[in-house]
Amino acid sequence: MTSEGIGKASGKIILMGEHSVVYGEPAIAFPFIGTQVIAKVHETDENFLSSAYHHGLLATVPVSLINIQQLTARLQQELQTSNFHLTIESTIPPERGMGSSAAVAVAITRAFFDWKKMILTKDSLLEYVDFAEQIAHGNPSGIDAAATSDTQPIFFKRDTERLSFPLNIDAYLLVADTGILGQTRAAVASVANLFENNPQETKQVMQKLGNLTKKAKQAIMDNQPELLGRLMTLAQAELKALTVSTPSLDHYIDLVLSQGALGAKLTGGGRGGCFLVLTKTREQAEKIAAILLEENIKNTWIQGLGVYQYV
Ligand code: PMV
């Protein structure tokens, strides 16, 4: 066994298809390389975690980190490691729809396999991350695991499709963080409730979201930024119907649309977290970012889609 194992992963952005992806509809996502998590593991006397949310014995982690406790217990047992000290450093804002929990699970799994010098297949990685995400989220579609562990944008369908999908379109994506913690677990659970109480109507909303994602894929392939923007805003209306938006997200989305954005929608689980704004030019994205920062938005990132270099 080497003295230290290291694993990395990035955050992710779901461009289209959150929530409906849980019910078998397609989604488009990409690894957000501006944000990253690094996990490091080495031998020690007792299992110990150093992270922004816990510095102490793994046995005493808060409930919010049980996914990490369970994942590492499984890795320790299956890879037959000694006791370990795990360090997690992350620039992915947690609970903002950027896939932080999945990215942490990807980085930890990679770190343990690196430590043991064992080959980690993609399927095995996704299986470990799914195990951790079941604990964190209840019913994960797997898109977070797939996107945070990849280097390319993907077109994804639960259990059936995971295709690389070049996101080349002449547009800019502004990612804005409301600073409000999203509630993926609660949002996924309340959508499941909607399904139970109102199956017909909820199914129709899911199908609409799925169709919007398929049209968005075509709009990207045809390099039609205006159409993509309109589809994003239409998806936001359906996400609102699923009760995963909030008055604050709605307010920001109306604001950016009034400033000439091509489209806007929440991203990830919703109920807070981040939203996306599509613009034609970088200047417009910068102008809208400046307005949002005046309006209490916590952080913004601008991503050129036509010139995106995924590494
Ligand atoms: O909030 P995040 O980053 O975990 O994204 C959740 C995406 C959902 O579609 C709402 C759930 C899922 O597992 O696909």
Structural commentary:
Helices cover about 40% and strands about 25% of the residues. A hairpin with a 3-residue loop joins strand 6 (about 155) and strand 7 (about 160-165). The mean pLDDT is about 95. It has helices spanning about 65-80, 100-115, 120-135, 145-150, 185-195, 200-220, 225-240, 245-260, 280-295, and strands spanning about 5-15, 25-45, 50, 55, 85-90, 155, 160-165, 170-175, 265, 275-280, 300-305. Strands 1, 2, 3, 4, 5, 6 and 7 form a 7-stranded mixed beta sheet that branches. Strands 9-10-8-11 form a 4-stranded antiparallel beta sheet. The chain has about 300 residues and is an alpha+beta fold. The two termini are about 30 Å apart. The chain binds (3R)-3-hydroxy-3-methyl-5-(phosphonooxy)pentanoic acid.
Describe the secondary structure blueprint for this structure.
Layout (H helix, E strand, L loop, with lengths): L3 E13 L10 E17 L4 E3 L4 E3 L8 H13 L5 E7 L9 H16 L6 H16 L5 H6 L5 E4 L3 E4 L7 E6 L6 H14 L1 H23 L3 H17 L5 H12 L4 E4 L7 E6 L2 H13 L4 E6 L7
Parallel strand pairs: 3-5
Antiparallel strand pairs: 1-2, 2-5, 2-6, 3-4, 6-7, 8-10, 8-11, 9-10
Main beta-sheet strand count, sense and barrel state: 7 strands, mixed
Radius of gyration: 19 Å
User: Which H/E pattern describes the elements?
Assistant: EEEEHEHHHEEEHHHHEEHE
Q: Low-confidence spans: pLDDT under 50, at least 5 residues?
A: none
Bound molecules: (3R)-3-hydroxy-3-methyl-5-(phosphonooxy)pentanoic acid
Beta fraction of the residues? 15-25%
Number of helices: 9
Tell me the structural class. alpha+beta
Number of strands: 11
* Percent helix range: 40-55%
What is the overall pLDDT average?
94
Characterize the overall form. globular
Instruction: Note the gap between the termini.
Output: 29 Å
